[in-house]
């Protein structure tokens, strides 16, 4: 093994990044060359693309202007207000030149992160729209081709997002002196994570408001009032609904997962700096910088592991080849577990080579990484349990619909609250186990607490190894949803509709699964990002925080007995609820406008219902687009202004409490919103599938009172699971990145 440690392992980072881009291009070619169906299907897909491009163009122009203003403000604030700047010029003197250097470097990193996040979202949306038509055409040939087309279409954005994150963080690290000063560069690139979080927040908010307002308007008037099927061409809001799947679930989630991987990567590197400084002069450790660079390498290996898992789905291999009777979720799970198995092998290799120098007990970090991988698997099953209709929670909601919409709504809220138990237990157990394992690593000159903290970083990176596959499954959801709409609107029901109905139900679960994964990774990362903030504060001013003696080791603490600190914690707990309220209210207001427009068109032109006249789709698209852009601003500004105000007024220790408690409340509230919304959605799908029986043993039909009650529950869950919940994932990471970037002005 000693000879392996001499390998130039850092070369894997650019190789993996380039491979991910080329692999995504191959997948794009493979999807785009497939059958596009008949002219009616192409017409529907063109309308979806037109609406999606118009909204994304307007949205990202708005976000770009906000980002430029924010970058200038960051540069000026850090240059003018920072009291104790880092020695960014490496001249041994901390002066105004260092303040200016910190300001412009952070601003540049912010803009690069924002640009990469925007590209990630736009690419995800574009490929999704192109894939839905081909998935619809593939569904006319069978289940296997449709699953493979949708998954590979989703994987294009998955691999490009992971590649952009990996290459972006790596490039900024080396551009800001990482090769010569690895102890300083991670602190200078936190702006990259902040930029990514900034764009992701507005992208997720705008897209989420758009998609759920259109969805609610289409469902409540179309299904409940008019009694027409989902995705019926007579529904004026149907194109806006299908466009929303792409701008919210694809563009928004793509930006969300991009900022997650980037922020957590940088946080792990910052924790690695402490170990690097302790061991850089220890004999027998030739590469102490590996503790800083390890997150980049482990994510690189994850790219190769997920590529193998993806290619296995519906491949000619006996175990992976799908049959028409197979459960699509089972096929996706097989590919995921292959990715997990290969990731474990790569994890063992990388921890041994990079973390096993000088007698360090690397195997404990390998075990910590296994904890992270196991956590990702656990969240897959937790999410499936709460959102698949073969399990109790969804069936409970469906049965509650027998007695009306009120009981269905109450049961859904109950399911959401219940899900916090498994979320908290899994995240808590993973943190505890990875911390305890890291403490056993026996690193020379490093305290057990610091070694344990790095164990949580390894666990977080282990969880992120399968990020590309999880992203592929996420985008699988809106692709299959749109394919279902294309089939319905183009008049191609029959066997193809049965296939897309099955895929649509699975897509609801895969979308929920990604949200669960995001919550899990945010929970694991919360601890490391919290300590990264403490390290940043102490690095700037060693006397800025209270220190205590724990097991004969000095560690930073946040003293909740201090009234200012307690108030900071209280504000942190409040923010997640206020932010969610603003996001949900925005959806409600916009959905009301869509509902009125759909009713107006039905009333003024009865020939729409007879199919003689085509509805004015563009009107609903315009209403949702304008409202999505307008309504995203207030919750976005609140998410930025509140933490900055707390940090400036109550100072650094209160800001630490704000970050800690705000993260905890955000994670648990996101779990409630995501799982209740996903369960409501699939309870409706369960009723619509005909699997639910009435008191006479006959299938419950669409248009019945039970179905109407299930639809009402689903519409309540829409802003929960696709607007407020996913936006909270971004908020949690934004709190970490904004505190890391602005820590110099809080002291």
Describe the structure.
The chain has 747 residues and is mostly helical. It has helices at residues 12-32, 39-81, 96-139, 143-175, 185-188, 190-225, 238-279, 290-312, 328-355, 362-387, 392-400, 405-439, 448-464, 467-489, 495-540, 563-604, 607-610, 617-631, 633-688, 705-746; strands at 546-550, 553-557. It is 79% helix and 1% strand. Strand 1 (546-550) and strand 2 form a beta hairpin.
Summarize the structure.
This protein is mainly α and 747 residues long. It has helices spanning 12-32, 39-81, 96-139, 143-175, 185-188, 190-225, 238-279, 290-312, 328-355, 362-387, 392-400, 405-439, 448-464, 467-489, 495-540, 563-604, 607-610, 617-631, 633-688, 705-746; strands spanning 546-550, 553-557.
Given the helix and strand composition, which structural class is it?
A: mainly alpha
How much of the sequence is in beta strands? under 5%
Write down how many β-strands occur, each being a DSSP E stretch of 2 or more residues. Answer: 2
Rg value? 25 Å
Beginning-to-end CA distance, first to last residue: 46 Å
pLDDT < 50 stretches? none
Q: Please tell me what the overall shape is.
A: globular
Q: Please give the largest β-sheet.
A: 2 strands, antiparallel
The DSSP helix count reads 20
> How is the largest sheet built, in terms of strand order?
1-2
Helical content (DSSP H or I, runs of 4+): over 70%
Mean pLDDT: 85
H/E series, N to C?
A: HHHHHHHHHHHHHHHEEHHHHH
List the helices and strands and how they pair.
Elements: H1 12-32, H2 39-81, H3 96-139, H4 143-175, H5 185-188, H6 190-225, H7 238-279, H8 290-312, H9 328-355, H10 362-387, H11 392-400, H12 405-439, H13 448-464, H14 467-489, H15 495-540, E1 546-550, E2 553-557, H16 563-604, H17 607-610, H18 617-631, H19 633-688, H20 705-746
Antiparallel strand pairs: 1-2
